[in-house]
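Methods, example record. To illustrate the input and output format used throughout this study, we show the complete record for DUF2752 domain-containing protein. The sequence lines were provided to the predictor; the line carrying C-alpha cells was produced by it.
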Amino acid sequence: MLRPGAVLAAAVTAVAYVAAVDPNEDGHYPTCPFLSVTGLQCPGCGSMRTVHALAHARIDDALGLNVLTVAAVPLLAFFWVRWALARAQDRPTRTKASHPALIWTLLGTILLFWLVRNLPFGSFLAA
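The corresponding predicted structure is encoded as:
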C-alpha cells in the first residue's frame, strides 16, 4: 500500500496547494508554453483553474474552464481505488495500462477536444 498511499498523498498535496494559491491571479504559475507560442489552447489549458474551482466546490466554474479535466477526475479516482484495492488484497496489478482500443479512444477524445476548443464553434470549450 506504500505506492498508492504515496500517490494519494502527492495528489492531495497538489490539490491543496492549487486550492490555496489561486491560479487566477497573475504571477503565481507559468503560462502554458503552447498557448504562449501559438495563441491556441492545449487540452490542458485551464486545468489548474479547474482544480482550484473544484477544490472550492464551484462545479459550474470548473465545467466552464476545462470539461475534460472535470471528466478525468472521477476516472482517475476509479483507477486509483481499483489499484489500491488490488494492492490491499495482495492481488497482482495489471501489467498493461489498458486495452489498446481504450487507449486509442482516450487519445482520440483528447485530440478532438483540442481541435474543437480552438475552432470558432467550439469556443465555449475554451477557458
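Annotations derived from this record:
Residues 2-125 form one domain.
DSSP finds six helices and no strands in the chain.
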